[in-house]
Amino acid sequence: MLCNKTRDKAPVPYHSKNFSGVWCGADAGVIIDGEVSRNDWTYCQALEDYLKKQGLDVSNARTYSNGKSDGWDWIIVQVCYNSKGRLCSRIYSGFKNEDGGINRTPESNIERMINRGWIPIN
What we know:
Elements (H helix, E strand, L loop, with lengths): L1 E2 L27 E2 L2 E2 L8 H9 L20 E8 L5 E8 L14 H5 L9
Antiparallel strand pairs: 1-4, 2-3, 4-5
């Protein structure tokens, strides 16, 4: 999850987390460079290290929007499996104090901007 500047701009569930800009989380059991993630709410250092190796500086990364109704305060990139085992991915955005859950966020501004709609996962 990438938010604009500080965690107060993040989705509500992230407000109690200690981070600035990027939260690296992975579901329990996900293996990244040989390290097994405990859960999404535990910061995943292996994911941060992987992203850094790919050229993303999570310490300085920020998302900026135009501050208007067609902008955003945060962006989430989520990859998961649905109940039928189908791999799903979503890049979506929202504003501070919104939930940010994958099925709790309606089609977002960034999805409209990149012309990628959303069908809820079941």
